[in-house]
Recover the amino acids of this structure.
């Protein structure tokens, strides 16, 4: 399978992620079979998806209850690799801090 150009890959994953609220590792590999060969590029992809509010999961959430939990406004879900850069750590920290402040405000 031919590799999809990076901008097209990101756009397709963002569309899929907005439709479902997340993308899976299989979604990424379906569109970019060699994605795992370059960890830095994969991390950048995760960071871009996260900046769009799209979570990346190894497997699709199994139950409706898990999906409800993931989409709950008081829950912050982050990809384990996507948060490995300094920039991603800062964004995750800000997101969590905002949720804590909002929770304390009531």
């Amino acid at each position: 399978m031919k590799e999809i150009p990076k901008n097209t890959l990101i756009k397709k994953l963002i569309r899929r992620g907005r439709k479902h609220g997340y993308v899976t590792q299989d979604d990424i590999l379906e569109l970019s079979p060699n994605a795992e060969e370059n960890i830095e590029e994969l991390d950048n992809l995760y960071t871009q998806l996260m900046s769009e509010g799209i979570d990346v999961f190894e497997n699709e959430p199994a139950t409706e209850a898990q999906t409800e939990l993931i989409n709950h406004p008081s829950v912050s879900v982050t990809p384990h690799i996507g948060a490995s850069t300094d920039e991603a750590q800062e964004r995750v920290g800000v997101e969590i801090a905002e949720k804590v402040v909002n929770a304390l405000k009531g």
Remarks:
- The longest helix spans residues 86-105.
- The radius of gyration is 14 Å.
